[in-house]
Amino acid sequence: MEHARADSPPDLVAALARARSPRRPGPGTPAGGAVRAWPGPPAAFPTAGPGDLDVQVLLRLSLAASDGSGRLRPAPSAGALHPVDTELTVGAGCSLPPGRYGYDPLRHRVHRLGPQPDGTPPGVTAALSVTARRTLSHYGHRAWPLLLLDTGHAAAALYLAARALGVSEPEVRLDGLAENPPAAVHIPPPGRRGPARPADSARRPEPSEPTPAELLARRSAPPPLPGAPSQDALRAVLATAARAGTGDLRWCAAVGPPRPGLVEPAADGAALRRYAAGEARPTLAAWAAGQAWIADAGAVLLAVGCPADADAPHIRRAHLRAGFAVHLAHVTARRHGLAARPVGSWQQADLGAALGAAPGRDWVVHALALGTRHADEENTT
Ligand SMILES: Cc1cc2nc3c(=O)[nH]c(=O)nc-3n(C[C@H](O)[C@H](O)[C@H](O)COP(=O)(O)O)c2cc1C
């Protein structure tokens, strides 16, 4: 039985073109309920047996809200609107009995939807879809790229939570081929290997496991984000993003004085290569819905690609992977003591054309603003 409700734009290619246009969104509309209305009664998570994948902890470390309003979560979301819905298919070796479940991140409860399909592998598969209305309520025609980026961030949060629980090979599907659900993460029980990794799945991006405390502490630093990151920290953040966001995306960072310009990872990954000179941050601020604080951020990590003639699977893939990679880069940034904030709303951000290359090829898809000091610390010094 198909339960997932299809929330996808009638024409993603046209939706992205509109989102990139200078047109401003109109007045807000109602966001609707904060959680999808799953059928049936909510159930608490059973205690995990020895060797089982603890689904309760997995979701606590990735998607659960830790406050009543639902704002404080391990995964970020554009406008804190949290449109991503999670449906779990549970196989053997988990703390939940096999079956299909809807997850309520506000109450941290599951709703049983039915039996698991034949051939369900051990572990849990989280299918990620969106209730578009939530993000549309604030961002209007700018919502669709944000919904896909949010889904990529949620996939990354699950990936990191699985790694923190000792699962060495969570399998992340961000190929963009499916419209709904656009993304899925399969997590085998700890100590067991997942199915053979398809060539297209996200590559293992981090050398060391994240800790549960680190995942729960992740927040987007409030702007402004002044202070240039060290070369070492910037190189680590770029390397994480480039490893995780493979394929169609190019990764670079805009840096300010004393040598303003754009840097990218050198071929050997051990150094930064400067490939454009000149101050880019004020232009980035203008392109990002006029968020002036971006002009003074210490650096801005950029995911670039998704040409104007990209088809719907390409658009999905680029945005899902950009969200996934920026989330991992955010955790790396924090490990290096940096303040960081994702930036996802981009209009007319044709970076390639601005650098004199062919127009319509290299658009800013997503970004992570970086600084060394928080605004609060600034105010007290
Ligand atoms: C896809 C995406 C796009 C975002 N875009 C912006 C942005 O353009 N400007 C901004 O200040 N914050 C942006 N954010 C950060 C959110 O506002 C932030 O995640 C949200 O308020 C929840 O706060 P938290 O990340 O501290 O949990 C974005 C986050 C995501 C995931």
Automatic annotation (TrEMBL):
GO molecular function: oxidoreductase activity
Signal peptide interval: none
Region Disordered, residue ranges: 1-35, 180-230
Organism: Streptomyces paradoxus
Domain of life: Bacteria
Membrane-spanning ranges: none
Protein name: Nitroreductase
